[in-house]
Amino acid sequence: MHETMMNTPTLPQILVIDDDLDIQSFLMLALKNNFRVKAVGDATQALKEIQADPSRFELILSDLQLPGMSGLELHEELRKLGLRIPLIVMTAHGSTESAVHAMKNGVFDFILKPLDADELIISINRALRVQTLETENSVLRQEVTRSWKVENI
């Protein structure tokens, strides 16, 4: 393997959940240059994918209304499992109330369909930056706590 290939950062992996195959295709095409994308048609399949490897996906992009379990119900299930994967919800049936409810419950962003690819990429990048900062903050807090223990003074 060439050294330049070894130093190439891996693109973030996103899980897309939408039962509309046209939306899945659009998202795969719109995101393929910036992200690795896996698409599934319902939240139950998404939950199986996530549980198989909880660290596989850096972000979830989900339709609000899905067969079996909604995007918000999936978010609740992930929180119960202790997983904090950023979630962006997409919907064609959005209201201000549902957006506020979603955001209060930890959803990173709420985007109305029809989707604008540029707006979506900006939102995804913002969510990934926030996730990185939260992770770095947590690591730094642990280091400070460890270094200020009585036995280390």
Structure report:
There is one protein chain. With 153 residues, the chain is an alpha/beta fold. The chain has helices at 3-6, 21-31, 43-52, 71-80, 96-104, 117-147; strands at 13-17, 36-40, 59-63, 87-91, 109-112. The chain has a 5-stranded parallel sheet with strand order 2-1-3-4-5, with helices on both faces. Strand 4, helix 5 and strand 5 (109-112) form a beta-alpha-beta unit. Helix 3 runs parallel beside helix 4 (71-80). The longest helix has 31 residues, at 117-147. Mean pLDDT is 89; it is low at 1-6.
**Amino-to-carboxy terminus distance:** 46 Å
User: Averaging pLDDT over every residue, what do you get?
Assistant: 89
The helix-strand sequence is HEHEHEHEHEH
* Strand element count: 5
Briefly say what this structure is.
This protein is α/β, with parallel strands linked by helices and 153 residues long. It is built from six helices and five strands.
Q: What characteristics describe this protein?
A:
5 strands; disordered N terminus; globular; 6 helices; alpha/beta; 153 residues; single chain; five-stranded parallel β-sheet
Q: SSE layout and pairings?
A:
Layout: H1 3-6, E1 13-17, H2 21-31, E2 36-40, H3 43-52, E3 59-63, H4 71-80, E4 87-91, H5 96-104, E5 109-112, H6 117-147
Helix pairs in contact: 3-4
